Amino acid sequence: MLPYHDENQTERPAYVTAALIAANLAAWFFIQGAGAGRSLASSVCNFGLIAGELTLSLPVGAGFEMGDNLVCLTDEGPQAAHIFTSMFLHGSWMHLLGNMWFLWLFGNNIEDSMTRGRFLVFYLLCGVAAALLQVAADPGSIVPMVGASGAISGVMGAYLVLYPRVRVFTLVPLGFMLTSVALPAWVMLLYWAGIQFLSGVTTMGAEATGGVAFWAHVGGFVAGVVLVLLFRRPQRVRAHRSHHWAPRRIG
Prior knowledge:
5 strands; Rhomboid-like fold; two-stranded antiparallel ribbon
């Protein structure tokens, strides 16, 4: 299923969401060489999150083959900063465009539900939670992990909590055709979360080949569900002033 539009209007421009998308695009073009082989491999190796490096369970200099006679070697120390840098890197054009589409579609409403500063912190915390669950699921992995998927999963979890009944127009394959269906947000989002959870269970313990971090998706989603209750703005309640009628004296 591919969501493409929702009926949820925003009250303010989504400046932080737009800035996050711009940061991801800038990283893709200027750091990752728009997917050029050596630049892409170098960026993933140097700024991606390696679970075994963070947990210090891999020896310094352990190698991971990245194709075209390129080998990524682990560095000394946990490289904790890569938890954050990995959130702004991607593995392919489709990886980037898919993530940015979901971020724009759902992020503008979640930003609108918070102050802009809170939304930025919320987004980053969801990304951290996503990365840490993926590390916990496979603490000795040597495969570099990149992508904004974990943080965006948090945005989707928040959307589920705040706007479960908003209609989301989604393209659904029926045979050889795509049909547009309006679904309540909770149906589409829980379906997506279930797919991520099952994928994580079925791939646990297996050597990752494409760097797809399913447990990061689950971790980000759960973090979004929990954190949105702390970060959203208090709902504005209109005060109704009672008016007492009294006759006016004329004359």
